[in-house]
Amino acid sequence: MSAVQIAWLWVVTAGFLEVIWMVSLKRSAGFTKLGPSIFTVVVMGLSLVLVSRALKSIPIGTTYAVWTGIGAAGGAAIGILLYGESANPARIACIGLIVGGILGLKLLPTNH
């Protein structure tokens, strides 16, 4: 596996960790529950470590957009699936646009 492929693995994993810490942040009730609060901080830290590793091989703009895009789309999906947030067609389409942007950034050359 090349360094760039490993970097993509890091940034995608970091994006999924962002979704996990977002859910645990909600469960921490504003950092008032110790267990979920500690878990949130640990997962946040791990996500940042993986993003920092990805930045060695993927441009900063691409890395950040993919990382936060996975977090945004994943967070919205979790909100719909677990917390009863709206799943109206316009909202689903917007999530699809985020996912499309992530895929576009992955598939387009970065000249790096």
Q: How many domains?
A: 1
Number of strands: 0
Number of helix segments? 4
* Helix fraction bin: over 70%
Order of helices and strands: HHHH
Shape: flat
Strand content of the residues, in percent? under 5%
Give the class from helix and strand content and strand pairing. Answer: mainly alpha
What can you see in these coordinates?
It contains four helices and no strands. With 112 residues, the chain is mainly alpha-helical. The longest helix has 25 residues, at 3-27.
Any chance you could write out the topology, listing elements then pairs?
Blueprint: H1 3-27, H2 34-54, H3 60-83, H4 89-107
Provide a quick synopsis of the model.
The chain is an all-alpha fold. The chain is built from 4 helices and no strands. It has one domain.
